[in-house]
Amino acid sequence: MKRLKWIAGSLVVLIVAVLVAGYVALASLDLESYRGELEQRAETALGRELKLTGAMSLSMGLSPGVQIDGVEIANTDWGSRPQMVTVERFEVEIGLLTLLTGELQIRRLVLIEPDILLEVGPDGQGNWAFGETGAQQDAASSQEATQVPDIASVRIEDGTVRYQEQRTGLQLTWNLATASLETAGDGLSVRAEGSYQSVPFQADGTLGALSTLMAGKGRYPFDLKVTTEDAEIALAGALDQSGQDVTSDAEVQARTNSLANLTALSGLPDLELPDIGPASLQSRVRKTDSGYRLSGLNVGLGESDLAGEATLDVSGDRMRVTADLTSSTLDLRPFTAGVESTGGGSNPDRVFPDTPLPFDLLRRADADLTLKVGVVKLSNDFDAQELRLSARARDGRLELAPLQAKLADGAADLSATLDARASPPELSLDLDIAKLDYGRVLRDLKISDGVDGKVDVRADLTGRGETPHAIAGSLNGGLEIVGDKGRFDNALLDTTGAGLRDLLAVWREQDQDMNLNCAVARFGAEDGVLNSRALLADTQSVSFGGTGDIDLGEERIDLRVTPKAKQTSLMSLAVPVRVSGPLLDPSVGPDPLGAAKATAFVVGAAVNPLAALGALVVSSEFQDENPCVAALAKARQGGTGEAEEGNGGVGGFLENMGESLDDALGGGANGDTDSGSDGNRFLNRQNDR
């Protein structure tokens, strides 16, 4: 960097020497005789070939000048083009009268169509890094003796600056239609017009004197404002040139009416930012030896806010981001709106989107993040509160350990790993939600205010894939939902689909709500198919046992539910029901197998739901436990095969249903639980609560 400044100064000094000599002996001056010397001195200092390819001409007057048509500086051998810098025309004028006082002043410096390429190679090296030969070191050591001229005016016309990274594909382009720097006090005023990534911009502000910048010493101040049609950026600070590397310290303010406006400015070909706004940023940004440090960071994005500290380390092979952030409100609705509106990304008939996840970010960068959020807006009417997140990404592997939040008066705890190194990427998650108020969820979503109840949710799952749909279709592990007492308003039940409404109608008291005593749904997941291990629910009029599966890959459901009436007069209505079809639009109706086969489908279930129904009614040992959980444990102790006749099976259940439910739900001592299979550990955890 400093050698480049010295080269520019040396070229100007040599040209000035030519001008002085030419002014004294104009008739005998041959500019071509100086071409080789200029090229050689530049190449010696730079370590790259410099060519003056065009004509050289001299103009005389009180401000003598030289014009050179064609200047080229060679690129590295791995560069994407032969030249790093080309200039179509180079013009310089000096103040002749100032030479009488021993001062060197450049009155005007003009660059016509400069084209500068800055690129990072496959090994992370920059083409602006020049080697240090012995001759170059000697030339660089003479910098202190080189007089840095005072430049009063600089004009650039039709200039282009390109920055690109061969490894990442990042490409940034600045086109300068016009740019001018004019002396203003101790510094320079700046004005520029052009485009960045094809987006027109204007810039104005002040800089320190160019002589200070080219001298490569001390503090170089800047105060700039850049505006586009949709954005504005202000930078005020200084470059610090006192060390080996140039650093900076600046206050940065930026705003735009939509984040989508920054998509083109990012230079990342696959990045598409959502249409969220307004967006603003304010921070102190310090360039360090290893990267950048952001302090006093304040970000606004739509209804979201973010504050804290962050660092960006670019000194290694992989970029690393470290951040400690807080937010009063984090609005995720704009990021999920597309999925919600289509129902599945590019396929509107899907529950799980098939849009690729941004795994490439994990492969390209490491991160350490802590985040605390007061309110997370998940949808228009549904929020989470008190979110706490700790995340760590290393070499393509992301760990969440943990993510905690309050959700509908419940407590959610999620630990997960996402490994983008695998092909396809692998996901592992452990989710625990305690006392989720599903009645509040329905009220918040403005679906119904006639539901009350809470559930516990437990999941331990692994999956693979590039998209949410692929991951869902490969899940393995276990899932359990356990519900305690609840209430469903009759008015709500009347609004359900015909099949479900007709199913429930015969089990409802005429003018009463449906009261739920308990419910358990436990599934084992295998290659994206949720196989029922236990399905059991109990109301004031009927108990339900069920079995079946949910195919997440095909997004289809096939469940059979057997009702058991608690009144003898209703037993003839206890016809098995089948719930089947697409997840988005399942049908509910009588089981085609008929009532005669009501018990056949339970063979092979991990827990016989009909035996569990019997245990639910004839036992009275579960006073302090969820009765459905205890009934499942009781059924497991009695065997898991086909329902048996007798006092503990379906026959006994039918005989004793009407008279023993009250005893089952309100009777004596606690029952035992089975700790046999790993699937049942979910139930054991529930009982331990």
From TrEMBL:
<dbReference type="InterPro" id="IPR007844">
    <property type="entry name" value="AsmA"/>
</dbReference>
<dbReference type="Pfam" id="PF05170">
    <property type="entry name" value="AsmA"/>
</dbReference>
<feature type="domain" description="AsmA">
    <location>
        <begin position="4"/>
        <end position="173"/>
    </location>
</feature>
<dbReference type="GO" id="GO:0090313">
    <property type="term" value="P:regulation of protein targeting to membrane"/>
</dbReference>
<feature type="domain" description="AsmA">
    <location>
        <begin position="351"/>
        <end position="533"/>
    </location>
</feature>
<feature type="compositionally biased region" description="Gly residues">
    <location>
        <begin position="638"/>
        <end position="652"/>
    </location>
</feature>
<feature type="region of interest" description="Disordered">
    <location>
        <begin position="637"/>
        <end position="689"/>
    </location>
</feature>
<dbReference type="InterPro" id="IPR052894">
    <property type="entry name" value="AsmA-related"/>
</dbReference>
<protein>
    <submittedName>
        <fullName>AsmA family protein</fullName>
    </submittedName>
</protein>
<dbReference type="GO" id="GO:0005886">
    <property type="term" value="C:plasma membrane"/>
</dbReference>
